[in-house]
Design brief:
1 helix; 98% helix; coiled coil
Length: 88
């Protein structure tokens, strides 16, 4: 009877350990999948950030070019005005 009781206790402990191990590996696997999803989302956001930064650089370059055009147009008008004044 005592041996049977010990066998039952050991069997119960084996069941508990087996169940806990299975639950642990399931949670571990789920965590790995979650990490993979998060890494993929981070990569998407990183690529979007790089695209936005590049777009911002292009816009800044365009504004600089537009400002340069205004300066050149102003300079051209001034030269034209000086030429007209010299012709008079």
């Amino acid at each position: 009877a005592a041996l049977e009781l010990v066998n039952r206790r050991v069997s119960y402990q084996v069941e508990v350990c087996t169940r806990e191990s299975s639950e642990f590996y399931t949670r571990h696997h789920d965590a790995q999948k979650d990490r993979a999803v998060v890494r993929a989302e981070i990569e998407v956001l990183r690529n979007e950030r790089l695209a936005y930064e590049q777009e911002a650089r292009f816009e800044a370059h365009c504004r600089a070019l537009e400002a340069r055009v205004v300066v050149l147009e102003t300079h051209t008008r001034r030269l034209e005005w000086q030429r007209q004044a010299a012709d008079s």
